[in-house]
Structures are given as C-alpha cells and as structure tokens.
Design brief:
With 154 residues, the chain is mainly β. It contains 2 helices and 9 strands.
C-alpha cells in the first residue's frame, strides 16, 4: 500500500540541522505514527512521503517555510519579571506556557537582564533548514475513528 491521504503511516526518522547535529530521532524506540493528510507532521516531510511504501528510505531536506516557519520577530517579547509570580529563579532555556494573541502556547526564555525577561514564542526549530532520514515501517488504511479525530488512535 502506498502512502496517500487517510492512511496511517509509521516511520523511523532521524532529524539533523544544517550543521549535521542530530536534533531528534525515533531510532531505538517506537516509530512515529501519523495520519497522512491531516497536518500531523510538517508539510515538507508529509509531501515527500506521499506515494512511498513500506521499506522505502529517503533523505528529505525541508526549508523553514515547509517546516516550522521563519522566525517571527513579533513572537519575541520583553516582559517584566513580576509576571513570573512564584518562580524564584528564571534562567535562559526555561519554558513556560503563556497566553498570547494566538492562544496558549509555549515560550522559551532567551535572555534575562535585571527585571526584564525576553521570551520567544517561535518554535525552537523555526528558521532552520531540517534534514530527515526516513524509513517507512508501516502503511495501513485509517479507521473511521482516526479519520474523524484527524489523528492516529491510541
């Protein structure tokens, strides 16, 4: 069976950045399962997998616009330290959930200077060209429940 919309696909992948550093991998654990065509994975990877079948391997380079997007400067803001009531120490790299004009989303502390904390609401991989080494492990028809939910059951 070929990968097509409304199929459940299981893949093993290794994600590297431009410098060749491994950013994420499913190798050594369970494969990633997703519903093809339901926007469960980034568009550049999903498009490259269309028509593939079990046993196929591929290397896919995904530019930011087909991945996690470009860095959006409006998603980076300085906020007052007083907004972190109950948090004794704030350090670069910490993540918090914040209410934004786009709804609740994770933000990462990228700088701390006195009473000012700089938060970045961009995805950590925004602005990066990503390379995926992928092996297709399984392809099957989605169940009605998976189609309705827009994601893989379980």
């Amino acid at each position: 069976m070929q990968i097509a919309p409304q199929t459940v696909v299981s893949i093993h992948y290794t994600l590297t950045n431009d410098e060749g550093n491994v950013m994420d991998s499913s190798v050594g654990s369970d494969p990633l399962a997703y519903l093809h065509g339901a926007h469960n994975i980034i568009p550049g990877l999903e498009n490259a997998l269309l028509g593939k079948q079990v046993g196929d391997t591929l290397k896919v380079t995904v530019e930011p616009e087909q991945g996690y997007g470009e860095v959006r400067e409006e998603m980076i803001q300085d906020v007052d330290r007083a907004n972190f009531e109950g948090v004794d120490e704030i350090e670069v790299g910490m993540q918090f959930m914040a209410q934004t004009p786009w709804g609740q989303q994770p933000v990462t502390v990228i700088a701390v200077a006195g009473d000012s904390v700089t938060l970045d609401g961009n995805h950590p991989l925004a602005g990066q060209t990503l390379t995926f080494d992928v092996e297709v492990m399984e392809v099957r028809a989605a169940t009605e429940e998976e189609k309705e939910a827009g994601s893989v059951a379980g």
